[in-house]
Design goal:
InterPro entries: AlkZ-like. Pfam families: AlkZ-like (PF06224). The chain has two domains: 41 residues, no CATH class; 67 residues, Arc Repressor Mutant, subunit A. Helix content is 47%, strand content 17%.
């Protein structure tokens, strides 16, 4: 595949699609190099999540690491449309705790809040 005045291998085109379909994920690093693995062969009992569950998990883990955070901050981190993320946060309202941070509405996932308190 021609790219930036040189040739890139064809797997560079296929790897994002394979990742989305759950047939490829990052493997263990080898020094400064990264590797890919097939999750079905290397992670015993691997079952891909449905899209809704996977999105909820991404939000949950993001808010655990970076919360309280606004939906705009999450949208920027995920490189997703802010309106779509705002809708996602509203659909997850029963799982999120709202906070006022300097006049902005920020969120924490309820389970993250319980873990930090305990």
């Amino acid at each position: 595949m021609p790219a930036f005045g040189e040739m890139w291998p064809r797997w560079r085109i296929a790897s994002p699609i394979a990742g989305i379909r759950g047939t490829l994920c990052y493997g263990p690093n080898r020094g400064r190099k990264f590797t890919y693995i097939c999750p079905h062969r290397h992670l015993l009992g691997f079952q891909p999540m449905d899209g809704h569950t996977a999105l909820n998990q991404v939000v949950k883990h993001y808010l655990y690491a970076y919360g309280p955070a606004t939906s705009q901050q999450f949208a920027k981190w995920l490189n997703a449309p802010p309106k779509w993320v705002a809708k996602l946060f509203s659909l997850m309202a029963d799982e999120l705790q709202e906070f006022d941070v300097d006049g902005d509405t920020a969120w924490v996932h309820n389970q993250s809040l319980k873990r930090r308190v305990l």
